[in-house]
Amino acid sequence: MFVSFLRENKLAAGILTALRLFLGYSWMTAGFHKLTGGFDATGFLKGAVANPVTGPDGGLVYGWYVNFLESFAIPNADLFNFLIPLGEFLVGLGLILGCLTTAAMFFGLVMNFSFVLAGTVSHNPTDIFLGAIILFAGYNAGHYGLDRWVVPFLNKTILKKAGATAGKAA
Predict the structure, then answer these.
(1) d(CA 156, CA 139)
(2) What is the pLDDT of residues 98-149, one digit of tens each?
(3) Do 48 and 69 contact (CB within 8 A), yes or no?
(4) What is the 3-state secondary structure (H, E, C) of the chain?
């Protein structure tokens, strides 16, 4: 019942728009400040490896994530220094405009979870909760935004190409 309300109701679309704008502003400004003020994730990444999330027994909770940081993220810090600010900015832009809303929110949630796995709590749990609502709402979250036109266009274009490809295969 709640899911159908989120996915189909116009009142829900209005509430989702407010949530979208709130989260979008947070993401976009965070990304903008990193893009314009300089950003280096190296210290954060090394700190997450040096002080990983541990359980009550003192063992690593997310050992696989620490391994990812050590073996991939830190050696490629320049890539992350580019992707994080740009990703934050684009997630915010997508949410504010209501354009590719579910994709923007998915990637926002990936970043939120990455920060949590690294041991940073901050406002991430709240963002994850609100982001999950937006993600579960699907198309309705972008109803009052560009998704009203972009999603049908993409569906038509993709389905048209898929139909043409399937016709050639037969």
Answers:
(1) 15
(2) 999 999 999 999 999 999 999 998 999 999 999 999 999 999 999 999 999 9
(3) yes
(4) CHHHHHHHCHHHHHHHHHHHHHHHHHHHHHHHHHHHHCCCCHHHHHHHHHCCCECCCCCECCHHHHHHHHHHHCCCHHHHHHHHHHHHHHHHHHHHHCCCHHHHHHHHHHHHHHHHHCCCCCCHHHHHHHHHHHHHHHHHHHCCCCHHHHHHHHHHHHHHHHHHHHHHHC
Per-residue pLDDT of 41-51, as tens digits, reads: 999 999 999 99
pTM: 0.89
> Dihedrals φ, ψ of 120, to 5°?
-95, 120
- The residue type found at 68 is F
User: What is the percentage of the chain residues whose pLDDT exceeds 90?
Assistant: 86
Task: Count Cβ atoms within 10 A of the Cβ of residue 46 and give its class: 0-12 exposed, 13-18 middle, 19 or more buried.
Answer: middle
Q: How many residues does the chain have?
A: 170
Q: How many C-beta neighbours within 10 Å does residue 31 have?
A: 22
Q: Which of 20, 22, 25, 28 is nearest to 143 (CA)?
A: 20
